Amino acid sequence: MPPAVLISNLQVAFGPRPVLQDLSLEVAEGTFFIIIGPNSAGKTTLLKTMAGAVRPRQGQVEIWGAAADRYPSRELARLVAVVPQRAPTDIPFPVQETVLMGRSPHVGWLGLEKQHDFDLAAESMYITGVAHLARRPLPQLSGGELQRVIIARALCQQPRLLLLDEPTAALDPAHQVNIMDLMQRLQEERGLTVIMVSHDLNLAALYADQLLLLKEGKRISSGTPKEVLTYEQLERAYGCALLVDENPLGKGPRVNLVPRRFLLKQPGA
Hints:
By secondary structure, the chain is α/β, with parallel strands linked by helices.
């Protein structure tokens, strides 16, 4: 069985500016894989390249053994669903119609949904907690509600690979945990491969099987949360002091920002 994603010697540039440089990685099927790193590290660009939305200057992205750019668009959309960083806020459709858009790679050329499609939309809305909003137009939703609708649309697509760009950024702590628990449950129960960009190092430590730490388009480290989230590697990536200790939950390390005023109190500082 080939890996869900195999990236070899990837280079991506926008004009003369390199964004990703000589990047290689492998994501096994059924893995919860989280990409972390500071702003402008290339995290979103990497996700878009996996989705086929950005073409590399050099190297290749393979999805289950085939080059991503060789898939017909409908076939790739049956395998890969994307939850973007910023969901559209001006679409005048109600929630149910928006979620049903996830069925477009599967319905016939006339675009007519069948009962099975409506059932999948209802299930996706239920498990993301937006079923009660089915008739609500998108512009009337809060940021957190809108994000969960976009996740529901992606789940309705029935992908094997789900790519999410900071899906918890607009959510309160309760909904952050709900979304992360949902991703983990889909991974464990359905074998879904989840690749996510996140700025929350502690959520990443708690949920990820594997992490990739980027800085300026280059790999700083990859591996388990315990292997990646070390003081030395985080300081190298973020350029600030981050205290790393054992998580009291017993799952991965815990990362705490150290304010500069505490550093200035240290002898010799």
